[in-house]
Design brief:
The chain has three domains: 3-40, no CATH class; 48-297, Rossmann fold, CATH 3.40.50.300; 306-374, Arc Repressor Mutant, subunit A. It is elongated, with a radius of gyration of 26 Å. By secondary structure, the chain is of the alpha/beta class. The strands form four sheets. It has a nine-stranded mixed β-sheet. The chain is built from nine helices and 16 strands. Helices cover 26% and strands 23% of the residues. The termini are far apart.
Length: 383
């Protein structure tokens, strides 16, 4: 037994395990301590499954969490990215190489929801796979259950060389005997899942909902234990603004630099006119100054007064087909509609509808030429 700095049981041989009191680790059962020099560790780069404008957003070989309220479009967002993967069109590591993707769903119905959304997003349906588990008692299949089905999941990934696995939702995939609010239980389930992502060099991504605790910040409002956030190497928030525009923001990105938020909207697409089937499809519009966490943290507004609501109704009609009005023309339209023209009332209505007042200047002249009211999202760069 060697010693170093007077401590017993520390071996200078990096290949020799050590155990209690410096004895061979056999005395400690199957657990054997191991030392590896940092100089013997080969560093590896991080590859990004989704990367654009110089920013890496979703890492390859890691676990990613997407969180947001219901109706924010979390599943639609994932389906859009997977659809681009199947076409080889998602900017990132697999751009130009169509690849297989897997969906493990425990909430939405495949026939009525997931498949129509995939078609609406333009997915190559030959490269999209539904993953579930069959048993003697359930030959028609049941949703995946973790930690029971790791081997089946990894075999499926390896068989298809799939590069993207989407859990919708990841909490719904956890066995009921495991407490999703208990940190140790959640970590024990997620860590092997992250290991599968690393071994198979793929993305594993799961949806998490927000709870209704308006007193807490966005981070604390993610359903389940904080370990969902801690284990994941990337966490993305989705939030909807009152004007119907969505915001995608980085909440955590351990392996890369911070990236700017993206604005999006959700449009309805005809999937089958014959069957009358439509499905939502997400459209990413460009960068925005808005932040999803700030939107989520926002306190619910009180119901507007009848005067403010009347002004809001008129403004909504005005801005439905025209996103910018001269202020003088907008005020005239309100007056013609017979609603309140009190400046404070108008301001409250504009704030609720995210209508901004902006000054317009003439080049080479001093002072404001006129003001406009606009619903345009600032700093949008349409791709």
């Amino acid at each position: 037994m060697s010693t170093k700095n007077g401590r017993r049981g520390y071996t200078t041989n990096p290949d020799t395990p050590y155990g209690q009191n410096g004895n061979n680790a056999e005395s400690n059962g199957y657990r054997i301590g191991r030392m590896t020099r940092a100089s013997d560790i080969t560093i590896k780069p991080t590859y990004w499954a989704w990367a654009s404008n110089g920013y890496g957003r979703i890492p390859v070989g890691e676990l990613t969490i997407v969180a947001g309220h219901g109706e924010a479009g979390k599943s639609t967002f994932n389906i859009e990215l997977m659809s681009q993967i199947t076409r080889g069109e998602l900017p990132g590591h697999w751009f130009g190489i169509p690849r297989d993707c897997i969906v493990a769903a425990s909430e939405d119905d495949w026939e009525k929801t997931i498949a129509p959304r995939l078609i609406a997003a333009g997915a190559d349906m030959e490269l999209m796979w539904r993953f579930d588990v069959t048993t003697h008692e359930t030959p028609d299949g049941i949703p995946v259950s973790l930690p029971h089905d790791y081997r089946e999941l990894e075999d499926a990934i390896a068989e298809r060389e799939a590069v993207w696995v989407f859990f919708d939702s990841i909490i719904g995939a956890i066995d009921l005997k495991k407490d999703a609010n208990h940190g140790q239980h959640v970590r024990a389930v997620l860590m092997p899942l992250a290991d599968i992502a690393r071994r198979q060099d793929c993305v594993i991504i799961g949806n998490v909902h927000f709870n209704k605790n308006t007193a807490a910040g966005a981070m604390e409002r993610m359903s389940g234990s904080m370990e969902f956030r801690n284990v994941a190497r990337a966490v993305i928030y989705l939030a909807m603004q009152e004007d119907g525009t969505g915001v995608i923001s980085k909440q955590k990105n351990n392996l890369g630099r911070s990236w700017p938020s993206l604005a999006y909207d959700i449009i309805e697409v005809d999937v089958s006119e014959e069957l009358g089937i439509t499905a939502g499809c997400i459209r990413i519009m460009g960068e925005t100054d808005a932040d999803a966490a700030e939107i989520i943290n926002r306190k619910p507004q009180k119901k507007p007064s009848s005067e403010v609501q009347e002004v809001m109704d008129v403004l909504q009609d005005m801005f439905r087909d025209k996103e910018t009005w001269k202020a003088i023309s907008a005020k005239a339209a309100l007056e013609k509609a017979g609603v309140s023209t009190n400046p404070a009332t108008i301001r409250k209505a504009m704030d609720r509808l995210r209508i901004r007042s902006k000054a317009v200047y003439n080049v080479g002249q001093k002072g404001v030429n006129h003001y406009v009211w606009t619903t345009k999202i600032e700093k949008i760069r349409v791709k």
